[in-house]
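Aim 2 progress update. The chain analyzed this quarter is reproduced below.
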Amino acid sequence: MRDSEIRGNTKTSRDDWLEEARNILIREGVDGVKVDRMARNLGVTRGGFYWFFKNRRQFLDLLLANWQDSRNDPLTRVIRAGDNDAPLETLVRFVMTLIREESYSPALDAAIRDWARSSDTVRRAVELVDNRRIMLLAKLFQALDYDAEEAFIRARIIYFHQVGYYAMDVRESAEQRLRYLPVYFRQLTGFDLPKGCRTR
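Predicted structure tokens:
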């Protein structure tokens, strides 16, 4: 049952407001995430917002918590889903999640990072998510017989490489990135791209 059916006939759900906020955050930054703006874009009155949220501050806290939650993070999910697989195969899936940009939104991550420049709370959330992703990657490298320190550094290299890719706004098609993938993979992991791994 949708939240709107529980909370009244608001024509929107809680998730509708969060999704609209994410869209505005990506386009305009956190200052653009206003109740009036979201209501207008959703075609409802401000009252619809207050069915679900106490105020804008609580809403922004929820927006951040939603992004920070590991269950909503496609990069965390793809690594954890590979617990019973060979670590190289999991690394391939991690990289492909980044390249495909389907479940993972680099634009949203970038918008959250921009928000963190003006909020210590958001900065701490970004650090938590970054550290979680890096530690999961480090476990994969340890499973490839790298010692703990080298596994950690390799995890940071592959992760910082990808964050830098988006921070520098590198413009390449998915096809170009797939062509570079075998070379990048060898340099970043120390292993050749496994034959037969799905990269399409």
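The domain at 3-67 is CATH 1.10.10.60 (Arc Repressor Mutant, subunit A). Confidence is low (pLDDT under 50) at residues 1-6. These observations will guide the mutagenesis experiments scheduled for the next reporting period.
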